């Protein structure tokens, strides 16, 4: 029998209105608690978010979290890891928060995270990466990092179009390439396909540029390996420039135009569109950090570059992200379910709290979002931290996951 989930008694759905969200004062937010440390960090985060909304708006606005089934708890209760009812709840209510989900190792099991992204067509993986003063970092000037990364999440070599060495499909393809295109591929090769479309690229870059304009950012950098892979990565760059020119011509200017017509200083209010080759970008992340602002990347390079950037400002425990489609958005920490710490009330909930902060920003509740950020900043500045940061900081006061949330709430 199909799983049925009872929505909460109070609250209303977020809706869409034209190209905007229509957010009621009491939105229902589906919540996937997640596996392993998921319940600890989502418990901490939801308490902080509720307190921040209360502080910002008194009783005028409120969040109605709705625990929906996914992962091991769902398997135990309903015999399904990801019931259709959960996917429907997220699609209908548009904005959701999630904890990490375990992907069991072993054949034939598709990651629930990937399933959620594909089923809901959440094509943009968005990660704001900035420094929280006091967080241990390997850099001399971690505060120079303030980027938001938009990574395409449905195409590229991660699309899952691949065949193992020796399989009938791989053999057929190798023969086809030889017979039809005179292209030689070694017989003992596994084969993967790298599709990158104009549609997929443009909707991702469009989101990045719109975000840059709405958030008053200075530039959007298209990152690619177009020097080597001309018709995929190179096309990503070209399509990116096309979106900027055709759809945001009044708000954007290319780096080349700035150099040629404005002596290197962009006119006020314009977002500069530039591009960098991915290997160069990896160096510039470190050497010229402050020159980059919003990045738009294809899937594979986006994966590497977003983690490299996050490492510069303190890594996993403080890295938040979102998977966003045309409207539907699922906010989550970047880290996994760290099963060895499950139920110990030990780990750092900052990434989950900041995922919630992104959610508040996404629904336009900027004041509450600002309170959350302030609470986290003040708590870490006071050196009240969980074990992961405490072991790298001098004079830190180590607290449990829930105590960290209490400390943030006191400092909102
Ligand atoms: P992980 O769960 O992120 O944990 C790796 C290590 O990172 C932990 O052992 C811990 O390091 C540290 N860590 C992670 N989260 C932390 C937090 N909140 N506070 C402090 N330290 C934290 O990675 P994994 O062990 O590779 O993956 C475990 C499971 O999670 C896998 O099934 C994987 O597929 C899944 N996963 C899910 C998602 C998702 O839901 N989006 C993302 C990634 C992975 P120390 O041991 O040094 O303390």
Q: What key phrases describe this protein's structure?
A:
412 residues, alpha/beta, eleven-stranded mixed sheet, globular, 41% helix, binds NADP nicotinamide-adenine-dinucleotide phosphate
Describe this structure in words.
The structure is a single chain. With 412 residues, the chain is α/β, with parallel strands linked by helices. The protein contains 14 helices and 17 strands. It has an 11-stranded mixed beta sheet, with helices on both faces. Strands 1-2 form a two-stranded antiparallel sheet. Helix 8 (255-261) links the parallel strand 11 (252-254) and strand 12 (271-277). Helix 1 (38-57) runs parallel beside helix 14 and helix 12 packs across helix 14. It is globular, with a radius of gyration of 22 Å. The model has no long low-confidence stretch (mean pLDDT 96). The structure holds NADP nicotinamide-adenine-dinucleotide phosphate (NAP).
SSE layout:
Blueprint: E1 15-17, E2 20-22, E3 28-32, H1 38-57, E4 64-67, H2 72-78, H3 84-93, E5 95-98, H4 112-119, E6 124-130, E7 146-152, E8 162-163, H5 168-181, E9 191-192, H6 198-214, E10 219-224, H7 230-247, E11 252-254, H8 255-261, E12 271-277, H9 278-287, E13 294-297, H10 299-312, E14 320-324, E15 329-333, H11 350-362, H12 366-381, E16 384-385, H13 387-390, E17 397-398, H14 401-410
The protein binds NADP nicotinamide-adenine-dinucleotide phosphate.
NADP nicotinamide-adenine-dinucleotide phosphate (NAP) is lined by residues 37, 41, 100-103, 113, 316-317, 332, 335-338, 347-348, 351, 388.
